[in-house]
Amino acid sequence: MSRKKALITGITGQDGSYLAEFLLSKDYEVHGLVRRASTFNRGRIDHLFPESGVSQLPIELHYGDLGDSNSLLRVLLTTQPDEIYNLAAQSHVGVSFDIPEYTGDITGLGTTRLLEALRTSKLPSKFYQASSSELFGKAVEVPQTERTPFYPRSPYACAKAYSFYLTKNYRESYGMYAVNGILFNHESPRRGENFVTRKITLSLANILAAKQECLYIGNLEAKRDWGYAKEYVEGMWMMLQQPKPDDYVLATGSSASVREFLELCLGYAHIPFQRLGEGLDEVYIDQRSGKTVVAVDKHYYRPAEVDSLLGDPTKAKRELKWQAKTTLAELAKLMMEADCEALGVTL
After folding, report:
1. Which of 27, 127, 270, 282 is the most buried (most CB within 10 A)?
2. Nearest-angstrom CA–CA distance, 105 and 124
3. DSSP 3-62
4. Does residue 44 surpass a pLDDT of 90?
């Protein structure tokens, strides 16, 4: 029996790297779409390739771009995947306010190009679209389910809303097996360094290594439903194994503030702290040295804040048999240990 084949856009990202590992463990032949750049950004998947640059695993990378329709069609016809996971995007919410047009082109229209390439190819591939809890934005109900109306609060979220509805439209218009995974925040040691959880753990590790003096941060009161990315990619795969395509929320079902995550990490870093000031003047002082180790900076606030998100994963538990297992405390410890180890710091 021949291996199943999967194509992952965004394979060099956090989710793409974990998904590639998971699919390889399921004996898939994995193909990844990568952009040509002047510098390599493949650190998350380097371990899948030996020093020769040729992997002994059934994995292959292909140059292409969500901004280039022809390259997408070429890669689809070349690889003929059974499953397609569209994880590529301009994925940083804050940055999307600075580059809204590019965010819309890649995160929004990129999905159009990929779905249209799939339709044109006439391949019977199953399609997974990475949706986001940011769709709910200024949430109209708590918790948020698959039926909660969207209220996007950033160019990124607006682009994701477009992609969500387009995926649903192609499913209903052309009978394609196309699903949306509405994933709430999912973190890991592979999270991008400008995302708040990784920024916290990496900055604290740098402070312990005497390579940084202070962590500057935005809204400490923002609350999110935080999970472990490695578990969430398994849920993506489960969605494409169902008899019929549908959309699913993946979440832990509990939420915590950025402040709670920060203070968990300060605890693991063994930094005794004192909080002083309020709002934009708030700081965390290391009680041993008297130095400021964390300071709020208005630069990191968004033009439109999303105050609180909390997902209801009931449908995923019932139909996919998927459930988040890692607690926030475990996740914070895992990330702190990984960043400290990389810098030679012992906790």
Report:
1. 127
2. 26
3. PPEEEEETTTSHHHHHHHHHHHHTT-EEEEEE---SS---TTTGGGS-TTS--SSSEEEE
4. yes
CA-to-CA distance for 343 and 3, rounded, in angstroms? 39
The pLDDT > 90 percentage for the chain reads: 92
- Would you tell me how many other CB atoms lie within 10 Å of the CB of residue 72? 26
Report helix angle 328-342 to 196-208, nearest 10: 50
Q: What share of the chain is helix, strand, coil (3-state, %, to 5)?
A: 40, 20, 40
- Cα separation of 135 and 150, whole Å? 5
What is the end-to-end Cα distance of the chain in Å, rounded? 48
Beta bridge partners of 30: 6, 59
325 HSE (CA, 13 A, CB side): 7
Token pair 């609180």 is found at: 308
Identify the H or E element spanning 169: helix 155-174
What one-letter code names the amino acid at 43?
Answer: G
Tens of pLDDT, residue by residue over 282-339, are: 999 999 999 999 999 999 998 999 999 999 999 999 999 999 999 999 999 999 999 9
Which residue is listed with tokens 């609350």? 223
pLDDT tens profile 48-87: 987 666 788 999 999 999 999 999 999 999 999 999 999 9
| Strands laid side by side in the 59-63 sheet | 59-63, 29-34, 5-9, 83-86, 126-132, 178-183, 248-250
CA distance 240 to 81: 13
Which H helix or E strand runs over 285? strand 283-286
Q: Which residues of 36-71 are buried (b: 16+ CB within 10 A; e: fewer)?
A: eeeeeebebbeebeeeeeebeeebebbebbbeebeb
- Transcribe 246-280 into DSSP letters: --EEE--S--EEHHHHHHHHHHHTT--EEEES-GG
